[in-house]
């Protein structure tokens, strides 16, 4: 009986296991894999980078970037910016779509990296709380490889966005391994953004990034450079979000599409310290310059930061003293860059050779040191003089302080004579004699003390005379 039951169980289980094995055999494994290169906690303007390994021609690739709760506390819209792929899709297989929830304006475009660059409008602008734009615009390798989404809020509250790009991979030669996908999220000051990568219908990567705004954050912008050969320069404008422009001269060739991010703060950003209030006055404007593509490749970078008359007035700085400083992490000190201030155009410039944290500061001049005036001695006595105490506007007059030296020669007390203007006059000194009143006798008692000493001396003289 027991044996019969076992045989029945085997008859049920064995076919099920056989079906499972067959399904596993006929279900294709993912042709490629993906890993994350950046942390999942990001600030506005940070780079998001993903590496795809084993990607080949004819693979069905899909990436979806989405969010349901982006919030923007600064002016402007939301941008999934500079989304780049180092491979293209086969003609007729490309599908691009962007969907916005609670947006009043939505657009998407692809941009060529050819010279001159060409922008191909895909959709928008449109108006309404929920918008979708789609296109079958083909994405060719090294031609249309920048896809950008822009949406502005329709009403106060979180914004939802979804950007999807998919197609059958094509490349000549085959896509590089790994193929790096990069983009920047601009405009959002808080919220989450989800990135999903699929091989056909199979999920390869699913990760969520959290956007947080650091203290003092005021704006961020990213630009991609053209091809810049060694010794030549390129000017990149970040004034819209970060009040800054950069003129960059590299020491080696920089490929087209190299990214540079400038972020503006009202207080010293992470990685720096607050400038000493006894050494500097601050304008309240700091920037960070970040670029993995340019690190260690800069011969010279001219940083131009714009400011306003209102900022100068509020900070109380002397405009002519404004300079660009960088924070040196090795010494934990702010150090001035070569450059200067242009008060007419309200800009201050500094010349650097590296990426760093920068700020606009004005050094406080040191207080003038007390310097002794020259003087000479006579008759074997020491030299004399006085220390000048600087007069400060609005304060009562502070008289100069007389300083003298003494020698072994006898001294005669003498009162200080003050002129009607309040300036001490030089004491009258007999030739060959150095005089200095004892510091423990007030000047007004010196004549009385002299009289008392004379009387005592006369009394002692008469006493000894009578004893004789």
Brief characterization of the structure:
Helices cover 12% and strands 41% of the residues. It has 468 residues and is mainly beta.
Cα(first) to Cα(last) distance is 157 Å
The low-pLDDT segments are 23-27, 122-127, 141-146, 375-435
Fraction in beta strands: 35-45%
Task: Tell me the structural class.
Answer: mainly beta
Domain count, please report it.
3
**Number of distinct helices:** 4
Largest sheet: 8 strands, mixed
Please characterize this protein's 3D structure.
The protein has 468 residues and is mainly beta. It has 3 domains: 24-213, no CATH class; 215-368, Chondroitinase Ac, Chain A, domain 3 (Sandwich); 412-425 and 435-468, no CATH class. 12% of the residues lie in helices and 41% in strands. It contains 4 helices and 28 strands. The strands form 5 sheets. Strands 2, 4, 6, 7, 10, 12, 14 and 15 form an 8-stranded mixed sheet that branches. It starts with a helix and ends with a helix. The model is unreliable at 23-27, 122-127, 141-146 and 375-435 (pLDDT under 50).
